[in-house]
Amino acid sequence: MLLVNCLQAQTLGGNTVFNFLRLPNTPQLSALGGINVSAPSNDIGLAANNPALLTPAMHTQMNAAFNAFYDGISSSNLSLGYHHRQLNTTFLWGLNYLNYGDIQQTDPSGNLLGNFRPVDWTMQLSASRKYLERWQYGMALKFIHSGYGLYKASGLAADVGVAYSDTANSFSASVLAKNMGTQLKRYEGTDPADLPFDLQAGITKRLQNSPFGFSVTLHHLHQFDLAYNDTVFNNANGYSNSGSKFSFDNIFRHVVLAGNIYLGDKVELAFGYNYLRRKELNIGNAGNGLTGFSMGVSLVLNKLQVRYARSQYQNNTAYNQFGLNLSLNQYFGLGKWGEKIGW
Q1: Handedness of CA 168, 169, 171, 172 (dihedral sign)
Q2: Which of the ends of the chain has fewer CB neighbours closer than 10 A, N or C?
Q3: 3-state secondary structure (DSSP) of residue 63
Q4: Predicted pLDDT at 237
Q5: Mean pLDDT in residue range 195-212
Q6: What is the pLDDT, as a whole number, of residue 12?
Q7: pTM for the full predicted model
Q8: Parallel, antiparallel, or unpaired for β 135-148 and 317-327?
């Protein structure tokens, strides 16, 4: 009930800070379209996105992911799980670090003063517990820091999720409220701004006696119209103007579609389609190719998971992500709690 007041304070679009929180920081999430809250997996990287997916089977699992963006920008993510038997609670510690490389620093006249290295990073602590046989709930607290030379800001955010899993029918569903919080420190000379809040919900289903599964995820459920409507730019460049109205375009901007193909119990293929990403990165009458599409492949072994994803952001521009999951208890004899999950 206390979180409801936080939801009312969130900006519905545009003027938010720490927008790097929107980026998918693990390959499996990127392969599924960048937004997914319901896919069952023994990948602790997905649990870093939705704490309700954190399970005892992820005890001592470590995930390291590396994302190559554009022009020397890189992102690194590290997650580690731990299940506390006495508390009957599974914990996750995570660190996400975004490095923008070296940038020249100048004064207002353009004189070169040297270089600086802007960075964004967030550290989180998540906890999850089981309720009855099919329900799981979790919460993540995140400390956020952003530093661009002399300009620095920090914030505090929380994610809250609830998940339902029916393994007998290969069905799962989840609801997640992301990035509820506030700035602790503002960039010098700027006004207060809200965090990029997002209310998400999704379902995942694997077809009976087949290797195929699919997911449907809805995002920004708190805001119907997601179209960015710059009337001056649209009129000057021949684009149509759209307002807040009921249309299939506005509906599908909330939808991310994803699918999986399971080749035995060791190899998984994933693909996704993010309609909003494709619409936002549309280059007018130019060919847009596979913009908005993503794909990935995973090799899942007992002690090791290797994951790769490729996401298409424009017709000739995509970025690649690599991830590695290690079950540390299998390497160092730390003990194994919980049982293997998944389909």
Answers
A1: negative
A2: N
A3: strand
A4: 65
A5: 95
A6: 41
A7: 0.87
A8: unpaired
For residue 86, how far is the Cα from the chain centroid?
31
Q: What is the CA radius of gyration of the chain?
A: 21
Structural contact between residues 112 and 97, judged by C-beta atoms closer than 8 angstroms: no
Q: In the block, which residue shows the tokens 């089977």? A: 57
How far, rounded to the nearest angstrom, does the alpha carbon of residue 208 sit from its chain's CA centroid? 28
Q: Where do we find the tokens 């620095």?
A: 152
Contact between residue 327 and residue 300 where contact means Cβ atoms under 8 Å apart: no
Query: C-alpha angle 97/100/102, rounded to 5°?
Result: 130
Which residues lie across from 311 on neighbouring strands? 294, 319
Residue owning tokens 């100048």: 106
Share of the chain above pLDDT 70, in %: 86
Give dist(CA 50, CA 39) in Å, integer.
Answer: 10
d(CA 138, CA 129): 6
Closest of 322, 332, 273, 277 to residue 299, by C-alpha? 322
Q: How far apart are CA 39 and CA 28, in angstroms?
A: 10
Structure tokens at 243: 């307002």
> Among 95-99, 102-106, 227-231, whose mean pLDDT is lowest?
227-231
Cα distance between residue 272 and residue 295, in whole Å: 6
Distance of alpha carbon 170 from alpha carbon 205, whole angstroms: 6
Least Cα distance to 311 among 327, 294, 296 occurs for: 294
Contact 136, 162 (CB under 8 A): yes
Length of the chain: 343
Identify whether the C-beta of residue 294 lies closer than 8 Å to the C-beta of residue 34: yes
Query: 305, 318 in Cβ contact below 8 A?
Result: no
